[in-house]
From TrEMBL:
Taxonomic placement: Bacteria, Bacillati, Actinomycetota, Actinomycetes, Geodermatophilales
Protein name per its UniProtKB record: tRNA threonylcarbamoyladenosine biosynthesis protein TsaE
Protein family according to the UniProt entry: Belongs to the TsaE family.
Any one Pfam family match given in the protein's UniProt record, by short name: TsaE
Record NCBIfam families: T6A_YjeE
Keyword annotations from UniProtKB, A to Z: ATP-binding, Cytoplasm, Magnesium, Metal-binding, Nucleotide-binding, tRNA processing
GO molecular function list: ATP binding; metal ion binding
Function (record text): Required for the formation of a threonylcarbamoyl group on adenosine at position 37 (t(6)A37) in tRNAs that read codons beginning with adenine. Is involved in the transfer of the threonylcarbamoyl moiety of threonylcarbamoyl-AMP (TC-AMP) to the N6 group of A37, together with TsaD and TsaB. TsaE seems to play an indirect role in the t(6)A biosynthesis pathway, possibly in regulating the core enzymatic function of TsaD.
GO CC terms: cytoplasm
Annotated Gene3D superfamilies: P-loop containing nucleotide triphosphate hydrolases (3.40.50.300)
Species of provenance: Blastococcus xanthinilyticus
Amino acid sequence: MKREHLLPTLADTHALGRELAAAARPGDLLVLVGPLGAGKTALTQGIGAGLGVREPVTSPTFVIARVHRGGRIPLVHVDAYRLGGAADVDDLDLDASTEESVTVVEWGQGLVEQLAEEHLEVRLDRRDDDVRTALLVPHGPGWTARLDVG
């Protein structure tokens, strides 16, 4: 899987999400980093579709976390934007579900990395021409090996 991606359309962002879902395993943690409008929720929608989630995947901004079951692997979708620190993350008790799920955290950089031994950081951005970009940064040998295949 390539580490750098141009995402000119929403469909491209969804396709990258489906590609990440195909490589996903129970216990995976994906930390999505980027400004507002960079495509974090759209990428998570693609991941959900790739995992076979049937219900709509929407931003969990006001509920903080949503669990989507019914797919190949449960999807835990977290928006850490309003969390004040690691103690707030602990209060969510996410570690109870991370072993059997794919956990995707928007705005989680510096807050959630301790939830798994390794994780994939997805750095999303929106250029001036409105094209989104994604850089996949593996943290740990498992993600490094998966990204280096193909």
